[in-house]
Structure formats: structure tokens, C-alpha cells
Amino acid sequence: MQPTHSSRRILLPVRNWFIVFTLMVALVLNLVPFGRLPGIPDWVALVLAFWCVHQPLKVGMAAGFVLGLAMDVADASVMGQHALAYVLLAFGAAGWSRRVLWFPLAQQALHVLPMFLGMQLVMMVTRMIGGSEFPGVLWFLSSFTATLLWHPVTYLLLIPQFRPEDKDVHRPI
Is residue 11 a part of any domain in this protein? Predict the structure, then answer.
């Protein structure tokens, strides 16, 4: 039995400006003041992990470092806290990219959950070394929220790469 045409998709190459645009939108979303609501995902971490999994040769630890420094300055937090966490997240996501992409989206989310939890653990330890108190277990809720958002964010970020449905009768694909 052959797969249907709609289940087999060939994606166009991603444009560099689109990657930069989505990372900047994620940075702006992180700066929206939600107050102290638990469970708000780290949008930069989510989009960074996505691009490191899907485009590990284009987005990596350097992007994580630059975005992390930008978040450290914007949050007025311990300098290097986000940078270290994002670099480790980018390293893990790029390293696991081939493995993660073999699975359906629900199982991909289960693979990125430990990466998000590890990133938050690094940020928490860095804060606590700097003199902060334990933020509480609800602080880790944002990793689970980001994991739940992996599925819709994947579709949203892949939309520009989908080929149009124009069929060419002379091409087999």
C-alpha cells in the first residue's frame, strides 16, 4: 500500500530571514509582561529548540548564546543565566535532531521535554548560586506547557516550507 499524496510532503528549504524573524517574535513574546503566572512557556527556548532540531546547520549554540544574552539583559537577571541555558538547549537539540525527527510529533514532544526541564534546571541553579531562593515547583510548569505547544508550533513554523498543491503530471513527486 502506497502512502497518499497528502501524507507525503516535500518541504521547501527554509529561508534565513524567516528563522531570524521567528526568533525575534519569540523574543518579543518573552518580553510580554504576564506577571507571575506559572506555566507561561519560554518562547525563545521553544523556537530555538525547534530550529535546532529542524535546521541544526543553520541555528545552533551561537544563536542560543546571543538570544540568551538578550534575555539576560531584558530580564535584568543574572548575566549569563539564559545564555548558558540556551547554549545547552541548542547543543542538546542539535545533537538529538536526527533521532527526534524520526518520531511522530507527540513522541517528538516527549523527547524535547527533558531538554526544556534541563534548561530550566540550569537556570534555577544559576539563580540560586547568585543568591536567589528556590522558585517553587510551579516554575517548572512552563517546560510542560512548551512541550504541549511543540505540535502546533511545529505546524506553524513549517507552513512557509510546504510546497503548493500544484500537480505537475510530468513529475513523479
Answer: no
